[in-house]
């Protein structure tokens, strides 16, 4: 299976381990990722928050590049990029007036023929293959965290029930781990304010992680670099003057990689702020060499 | 006709003007910016009930829409609440009347942003400006450049964490920008969007 | 042929206008205009039909052939048809028919399509007066000979008056 | 040459003031074919009518035109006068020179000229009128009532009391409908069973009512006065004539863990069961999907896996080999009273266009229930004996949150309309709860309280003022399961505050929707449904219990969300319509109906497609040897309402509306 690949800015920097683990699991799962040549930033929330047209045009440029490259599907692992690209595709198809404004801005013909996919839907589709190749991660309890952008808005995301999604749980089940039942799977962690309004982020993230912890999860599984950096990076702040959380935040691809018995380092597991050592130990897997912690 | 609705507030007669002639109300501006109709909001409050930021917003999402319905433009546009929205779309996904409050709040921000008003929180404005500048310049975001730019604009760093050596140590920040080939293309998109926005201003 | 009863010579052109109306809404509305003594132009003569659904487009050509200078078609509002759907069929038929009239060289401004309910006596008066005034401006309809074969002399670009092409009442989607 | 008489009325001064009636009479008298023309002060007066009769007799008229007021006023008067003089009534018509002429014009010249034109047109039309006779259709004076809820029961009883036979068809094993599930009813809080059960029994025992329970309408043919209805009698597996309702079979059935539909899943029943103790008829039915014997047979087992019920039955009533049977009934009228279902708001239901609400956890959080489930908990005969207990752990909830408008007033994931009864039953629920759990706290999230009915507002206020229910104005975003409680994330828009409540139980006031399968039934009856599936009434204000199909009436919650008083009022209204219809042996109708010229009909059936009443049927034309020559359209006079749409649509002009033929109208147009 060949797929267009739109890594987006964060997979080249803050979420490098997402990129690493995705590429690591792609091989064993027979997925060929072809990066969009010369892709540009999707505009992220800054374009979105200030100029709607710009946010559509920037995303559409990438879709047009993929089209030129002969790709029929583009996978954007970052939930934010996925949301921006999928929104652009949706609006270019449904808002003719706006589409007419955008088309001349693109330096190439644009038929809006490329489908946009995210990593969860991709892995959900491959669950059978994962299960076949996995050494079950028996005993590991994880909380699947969707956040906002994967499932919302429903008419754009369109891959799972927006209020009671199950796709991540299906992937987790394929790895042999157990997905706990919990309530705050869809609550926003505030990643958009990760840099500008830390207080809010800590408040929101804490409520989410406390619920995950209370449900018995040993780790939280995510599929969005923003959620990840937020819940990972800010966890120590969330713990301040409260009970410790100590919940490693794993990318879904990392969990799949673990089940496929890939080398933890190749999955970037040592790059997290909250150590995944405990999880490894629970699975009796070789613990990654942890970098010096920055907590406290 | 104008109707006093409270000390110093006047509800102008353009409030519920559903006619087709150019509508200078805030509702009209929002309709042009987003294609949406604020009048569709029946004030059920489901948006505010689920909004993760409602607790911190002086005006809750449905209240923002209410002020827009009443055309209390100055009061609404000078309020920080729109800037506290995370665009998480919880409200939109659950709104029973298909109002799309998240998009309308986007629209409010766009209106304020374009007016250059000082309401938009300095840090946020600075962040968005710096972020877009990165894209405009490199085609992608170069974090270190972003941090420097942001610091220049606000005099502050985001906060301690991103500058912490730990981030670099984890190989998470590139030290030089990766420039894409199609930078001119991207710049042209920015220019075209700027012009489109200017045209819209003139029309209204 | 009846000019001897007419009072004095007419300086102005007085058009003859035929109105095809349904029994349940517009005819009753016109009755109401009468009971309310609403004065209106005397140029309109009403033909009563059970429903606008009964109106054959040929009635209209026939009226023009017979010397009418204008035609009104009026029935129940979209959702109010006494027969539930007759006016819906009429509406579809007339949208097509109007193009045909235009093609045949009949200025579509000579025709009015409207909805007048049983309680809209005032609206009926307005329809009568507006149509009369409009047709007066257009002058006598002289092209009626051989209506069915006449090639189009000049296509009219002016929008015809009337509500029939607008969408039925419904939610105004932005 | 025709001999038409024209009579011009002065209407005192009403016409005479502006129209020169004598000139009109003179001008009309000069027309070819007019044998008599006169004017008179008051045509509708007795001497005026006498003038008409005399003219017919003396001048041997074959048509009459009265130029006077609106035909809506006096057409009947003059037609009757003509008929009494021996002329066919339909050869008489009126020209409206009052409402359409004298009253609306000032100039005597203009008005007179117009009056002449109007009368002349009618003269030309009447010259071409044909004698018509009213259509007579014999009526089968027996009614079919579909649905045995309170609406159907009421309609059946009223019709039977009026002396006419009724066949009552109910698809479930028992009649009673939703009302039988309710505990106490607003606005008076009387016990639902207590007022309903006697009516159920009365309907069952009434000699004029034939109850076909556990039956469904299979097909319907015919038209007003003459419907033929085929009813499927589903196999009960119990012989109704033998069973005496002792209940031994139920006790013997080993399969007792089946969720009871009647208890809304909160209680259990056996595979052979009566839905509830007061069921009418009190005869059990075997649920073959759950019965061990039938499951075994379906799997191909040679030996029957169980026959405990049959063994237990002292009357040999259990009959495993019973099959569905069919009964055909002839009826003159039908009342549709199929009621409603509640919108099941669990997560997305793939089979349904409605999406459901994942955020409310219905179906996944056990203590989130709907209104009917609450009714069962509150009912003395319910699964908890009338104690309000949580389904999850059987504990008494101390804090209940009620959510209104769930699925209603929600175009995004539900339905646009307001379900009308939920505001009231939520108020009722808060009261019932407080009566049973004195230290309990009831919270209600609402958008508006719609309590427009006699005593309703007072009732709803009582919930707040006397029973301490706390009403919070806002919708809830999400329910979250936290340990033993349910966290309700709401907002009170009145105080502007987010409201998070840890509830022990949450009750969703879910929307009312029409019964499943209503569209198929409507199609059989050729009545229409609105976009949601509710049966359309003929006119929303003036014909609320009739449908567009003559002889088919509607009552209760199948027409729109309705409470019991409304349903009963509608049912009595529908019954009186039926009795009105049945007060005649024959149906007499205006002969303004369409007639197809079968020789010319090309069989394109455009007419069939446009007819709003389904009056156009297909007819096979065969030669003497029985070889099919062609299929043509034919209009069923009993069904046609005379709109004329078919005539205007027929491409080959082979259908004519009597009284409004092309020839008549063309002649009138030319004469104007
Ligand atoms: C939670 C709740 C509480 C309520 N409380 C009150 C209250 O306190 N007071 C009040 O006035 N109202 C109350 N109502 C409303 C009340 O239930 C309805 O007004 C009433 O039941 C409507 O009666 P019906 O006969 O029209 O329909 P139903 O009660 O729905 O009866 C319809 C019958 O038709 C049968 N049927 C359906 N389809 C077919 C078919 N195709 N063929 C044959 N039979 C068919 C069904 O099996 C059923 O027996 C409440 C409703 C709810 C949901
Ligand atoms: C402002 C307003 C707007 C409304 N708009 C609508 C609307 O848009 N749609 C709608 O459905 N409803 C509307 N309604 C409601 C509507 O008017 C009533 O539902 C309807 O008129 C009730 O009809 P009725 O025959 O019961 O009573 P009424 O119309 O009051 O008729 C009663 C008759 O009885 C006569 N009468 C009274 N006492 C005696 C006596 N002792 N002896 C003999 N005769 C007597 C009276 O003179 C009168 O003619 C509206 C009401 C109001 C106030
Ligand atoms: S949820 Fe929708 S309708 Fe309700 S208050 Fe918010 S925007 Fe308005
Ligand atoms: S999109 Fe904004 S307003 Fe809506 S719920 Fe999220 S934070 Fe609140
Ligand atoms: S055969 Fe057995 S299982 Fe079936 S209904 Fe009778 S007793 Fe119950
Ligand atoms: S079937 Fe037999 S055992 Fe069962 S109730 Fe009837 S008579 Fe009693
Ligand atoms: S009756 Fe009340 S609760 Fe029910 S839909 Fe209408 S407003 Fe909502
Ligand atoms: S009294 Fe009239 S206006 Fe007030 S709530 Fe009732 S119906 Fe509405
Ligand atoms: S439209 Fe005319 S020709 Fe066609 S089937 Fe009907 S009657 Fe016959
Ligand atoms: S006149 Fe109207 S109702 Fe009668 S058959 Fe024709 S279309 Fe049907």
Question: What are the defining features of this structure?
Answer:
heterotetramer, B: 204 residues, mainly alpha, Fumarate Reductase Iron-sulfur Protein, Chain B, domain 2, two-stranded antiparallel ribbon, 4% strand, globular, D: 672 residues, alpha/beta, Rossmann fold, FAD/NAD(P)-binding domain, 5 domains, 5-stranded parallel beta sheet, 18 helices, 34 strands, 27% helix, binds flavin-adenine dinucleotide, binds iron/sulfur cluster
Count of strand segments of chain D: 34
Briefly note the CATH topology name of the largest domain in chain D.
FAD/NAD(P)-binding domain
Please tally the β strands of chain C and state the result. Answer: 5
The number of distinct helices of chain C, counting runs of at least 4 residues, comes to 4
Q: Characterize the biggest β-sheet of chain C.
A: 5 strands, parallel
Q: Which cofactor or ligand species appear?
A: flavin-adenine dinucleotide, iron/sulfur cluster
- Domain count of chain C: the total is 1
Please explain how this structure is put together.
The complex is a heterotetramer of chains A (296), B (204), C (174) and D (672). Chain A has 15 helices and eight strands. Chain A has 296 residues and is an alpha/beta fold. In chain A, helix 4 packs across helix 5 (79-94). Chain A has helices at residues 8-12, 16-26, 44-50, 52-68, 79-94, 96-102, 119-125, 127-133, 154-157, 167-175, 198-214, 225-233, 235-239, 252-259, 277-282; strands spanning 2-5, 32-35, 73-75, 115-117, 141-144, 178-179, 219-222, 249-251. Chain A has two domains: 2-117, Up-down Bundle (Glutathione S-transferase Yfyf (Class Pi), Chain A, domain 2); 135-284, Rossmann fold. Chain B folds into two domains: 11-115, Orthogonal Bundle (Fumarate Reductase Iron-sulfur Protein, Chain B, domain 2); 122-203, no CATH class. The two termini of chain B are 23 Å apart. With 174 residues, chain C is α/β, with parallel strands linked by helices. Chain C has one domain (14-143): Rossmann fold, CATH 3.40.50. Mean pLDDT of chain C is 76; it is low at 1-10, 148-160 and 164-174. By secondary structure, chain D is an alpha/beta fold. Chain D folds into five domains: 4-127, Lumazine/riboflavin synthase (Rossmann fold, 3-Layer(aba) Sandwich), CATH 3.40.50.960; 142-234 and 327-339 and 515-582, FAD/NAD(P)-binding domain (3-Layer(bba) Sandwich), CATH 3.50.50.60; 248-323, no CATH class; 341-513, FAD/NAD(P)-binding domain (3-Layer(bba) Sandwich), CATH 3.50.50.60; 590-670, 2-Layer Sandwich (Alpha-Beta Plaits), CATH 3.30.70. A five-stranded parallel beta sheet of chain D has the order 10-7-6-18-29. Chain D has a five-stranded parallel beta sheet with strand order 20-27-21-22-23. A four-stranded parallel beta sheet of chain D has the order 2-1-3-4, sandwiched between helices. Chain D is elongated and about 95 Å long. At the A-B interface, helix 3, helix 4 and helix 11 of A face helix 5, helix 6, helix 7, helix 10 and helix 11 of B. Residues 252-253, 255, 270-272, 286, 291-293, 306-309 of chain D line the site of one iron/sulfur cluster.
């Amino acid at each position: 299976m060949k797929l267009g690949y739109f890594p987006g800015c964060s997979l080249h920097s803050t979420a490098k381990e997402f990129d690493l683990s995705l590429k690591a699991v792609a091989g064993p799962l027979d997925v060929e990722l072809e990066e969009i040549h010369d892709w540009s930033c999707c505009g992220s929330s800054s374009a979105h928050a200030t100029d709607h047209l710009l946010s559509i045009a920037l995303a559409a440029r990438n879709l047009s590049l993929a089209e030129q490259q002969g790709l029929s599907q583009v996978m954007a692992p970052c939930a934010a990029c996925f949301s921006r690209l999928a929104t652009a595709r949706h609006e270019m198809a449904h808002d003719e007036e706006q589409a007419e404004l955008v088309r001349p801005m693109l330096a190439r013909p644009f038929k809006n023929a490329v489908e946009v996919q995210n990593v969860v839907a991709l892995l959900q589709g491959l669950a059978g293959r994962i299960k076949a190749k996995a050494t079950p991660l028996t005993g590991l309890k994880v909380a699947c965290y969707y956040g906002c952008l994967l499932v919302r808005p429903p008419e754009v995301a369109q891959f799972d029930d927006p209020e009671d999604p199950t796709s991540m749980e299906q992937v987790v089940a394929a790895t042999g781990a157990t997905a706990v039942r919990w309530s705050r799977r869809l609550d926003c962690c505030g990643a958009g304010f990760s840099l500008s309004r830390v207080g809010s982020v800590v408040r929101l993230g804490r409520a989410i992680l406390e619920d995950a912890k209370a449900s018995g999860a040993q780790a939280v599984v995510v599929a969005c670099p923003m959620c990840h950096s937020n819940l990972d990076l800010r966890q120590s702040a969330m713990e301040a003057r409260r009970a410790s959380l100590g919940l490693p935040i794993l990318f879904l691809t990392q969990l799949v990689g673990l089940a496929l018995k890939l080398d933890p380092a190749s999955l970037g597991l040592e790059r997290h702020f909250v150590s995944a050592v405990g999880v490894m130990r629970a699975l009796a897997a070789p613990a990654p060499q942890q970098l010096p912690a920055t907590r406290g | 006709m104008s109707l006093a609705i409270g000390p110093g507030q006047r509800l102008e007669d353009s409030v519920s003007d559903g006619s087709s002639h150019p509508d200078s109300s805030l509702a009209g501006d929002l309709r042009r910016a987003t294609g949406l109709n604020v009048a569709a909001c029946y004030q059920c409050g489901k948006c505010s009930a689920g909004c993760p930021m409602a607790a911190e917003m002086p005006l809750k999402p449905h209240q923002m829409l209410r002020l827009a319905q009443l055309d209390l433009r100055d009061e609404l546009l000078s309020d920080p609440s729109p800037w506290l929205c995370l665009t998480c779309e919880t409200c939109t996904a659950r709104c029973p009347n298909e109002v799309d409050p998240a998009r309308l709040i986007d629209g409010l921000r766009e209106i304020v942003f374009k007016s250059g008003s000082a309401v938009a929180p300095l840090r946020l404005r600075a962040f968005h400006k710096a972020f877009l500048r990165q894209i405009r310049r490199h085609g992608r975001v170069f974090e270190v450049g972003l941090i420097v730019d942001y610091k220049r604009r606000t005099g502050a760093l985001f906060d301690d964490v991103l500058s912490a050596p730990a981030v670099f140590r984890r190989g998470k920040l590139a030290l030089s920008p990766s420039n894409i080939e199609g930078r001119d293309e991207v710049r042209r998109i920015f220019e075209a969007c700027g012009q489109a926005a200017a045209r819209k201003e003139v029309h209204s | 042929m009846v000019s001897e009863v007419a009072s004095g010579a007419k300086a102005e052109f007085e058009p003859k206008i035929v109105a095809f109306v349904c029994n349940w809404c517009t005819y009753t509305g016109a009755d109401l205009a009468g009971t309310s003594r609403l004065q209106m132009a005397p140029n309109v003569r009403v033909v009563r039909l059970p429903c606008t659904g009964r109106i054959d487009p040929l009635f209209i050509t026939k009226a023009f052939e017979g010397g009418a200078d204008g035609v009104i078609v009026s029935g129940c509002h979209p959702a109010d048809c006494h027969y539930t759907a007759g006016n819906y069929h009429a509406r579809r038929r007339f949208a097509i028919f109007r193009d045909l009239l235009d093609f045949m060289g009949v200025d579509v401004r000579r025709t009015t399509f409207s909805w007048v309910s049983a309680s809209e006596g005032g609206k009926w008066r307005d329809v009568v007066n507006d149509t009369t005034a409009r047709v007066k401006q257009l002058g006598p309809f002289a092209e009626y000979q051989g209506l069915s074969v006449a090639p189009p002399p000049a296509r009219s670009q002016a929008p015809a008056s009337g509500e029939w092409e607008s969408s039925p009442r419904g939610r105004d989607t932005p | 040459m025709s001999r038409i008489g024209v009579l011009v009325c002065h209407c005192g001064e009403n016409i005479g003031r502006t129209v020169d009636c004598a000139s009109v009479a003179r001008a009309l008298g000069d027309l070819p074919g007019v044998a008599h023309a006169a004017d008179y002060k008051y045509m509708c007066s007795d001497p005026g009518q006498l003038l008409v009769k005399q003219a017919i007799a003396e001048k041997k008229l074959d048509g009459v035109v009265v130029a006077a007021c609106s035909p809506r006023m006096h057409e009947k008067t003059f037609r009757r006068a003509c008929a009494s003089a021996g002329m066919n009534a339909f050869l008489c018509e009126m020209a409206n020179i009052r409402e359409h002429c004298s009253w609306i014009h000032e100039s005597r010249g203009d008005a007179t000229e117009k009056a002449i034109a109007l009368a002349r047109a009618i003269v030309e039309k009447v010259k071409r009128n044909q004698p018509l006779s009213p259509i007579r259709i014999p009526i089968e004076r027996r009614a079919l009532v579909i649905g045995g809820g309170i609406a159907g029961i009421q309609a059946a009883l009223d019709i039977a009391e009026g002396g006419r036979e009724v066949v009552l068809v109910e698809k479930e094993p028992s009649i009673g409908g939703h009302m039988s599930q309710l505990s106490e009813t607003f606005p008076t809080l009387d016990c639902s069973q207590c007022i309903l059960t006697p009516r159920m029994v009365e309907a069952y025992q009434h000699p004029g009512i034939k109850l076909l329970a556990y039956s469904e309408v299979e097909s319907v043919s015919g038209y007003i006065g003459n419907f033929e209805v085929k009813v499927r009698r589903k196999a009960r597996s119990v012989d109704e004539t033998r069973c005496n309702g002792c209940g031994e079979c139920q006790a013997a059935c080993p399969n007792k863990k089946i969720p009871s539909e009647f208890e809304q899943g909160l209680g259990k029943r056996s595979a052979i069961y009566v839905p509830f103790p007061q069921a009418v008829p009190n005869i059990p039915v075997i649920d073959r999907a759950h019965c061990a014997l039938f499951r075994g047979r379906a799997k191909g087992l040679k030996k029957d896996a169980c026959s405990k019920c049959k063994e237990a039955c002292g009357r040999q009533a259990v009959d495993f080999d019973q099959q569905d049977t069919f009964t055909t009934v002839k009826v003159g009228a039908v009342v549709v009273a199929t009621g409603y279902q509640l919108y099941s708001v669990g997560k997305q239901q793939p089979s349904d266009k409605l999406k459901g609400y994942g955020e409310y956890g219905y179906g996944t959080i056990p203590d989130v229930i709907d209104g009917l489930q609450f009714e069962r908990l509150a009912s003395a005969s319910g699964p908890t004996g009338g104690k309000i207990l949580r389904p999850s752990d059987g504990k008494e909830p101390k804090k209940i949150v009620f959510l209104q408008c769930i699925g209603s007033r929600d175009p995004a994931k539900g339905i646009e309309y307001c379900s009308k009864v939920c505001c009231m039953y939520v108020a009722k629920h808060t009261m019932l709860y407080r009566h049973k759990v004195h230290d309990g706290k009831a919270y209600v999230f609402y958008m508006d309280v719609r309590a427009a009915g006699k005593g309703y507002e007072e009732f709803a206020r009582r919930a707040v003022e006397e029973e301490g229910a706390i009403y919070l104005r806002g919708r809830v975003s999400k329910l979250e399961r936290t340990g033993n409680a349910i966290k309700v994330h709401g907002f009170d828009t009145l105080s502007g505050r987010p409201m998070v409540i840890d509830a022990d139980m949450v009750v969703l006031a879910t929307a009312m929707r029409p019964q499943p399968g209503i569209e198929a039934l409507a199609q059989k009856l050729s009545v229409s449904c609105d976009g949601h599936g509710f049966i359309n009434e003929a006119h929303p204000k003036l014909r609320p219990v009739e449908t567009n199909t003559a002889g088919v009436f509607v009552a209760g919650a199948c027409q729109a969300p309705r409470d019991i008083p409304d349903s009963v009022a509608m049912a009595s209204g529908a019954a009186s319509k039926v009795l009105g219809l049945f007060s005649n042996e024959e149906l007499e109708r205006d002969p303004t109906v369409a007639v197809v010229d079968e020789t010319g009909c090309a069989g394109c059936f455009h007419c069939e497609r446009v007819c709003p009443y389904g009056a156009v049927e297909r007819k096979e034309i065969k030669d003497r040897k029985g070889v099919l020559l062609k299929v043509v359209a034919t209009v069923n006079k009993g069904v046609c309402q005379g709109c004329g749409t078919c005539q205007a649509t027929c491409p080959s002009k082979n259908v004519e509306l009597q009284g409004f033929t092309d020839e008549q109208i063309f002649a009138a147009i030319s004469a104007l």
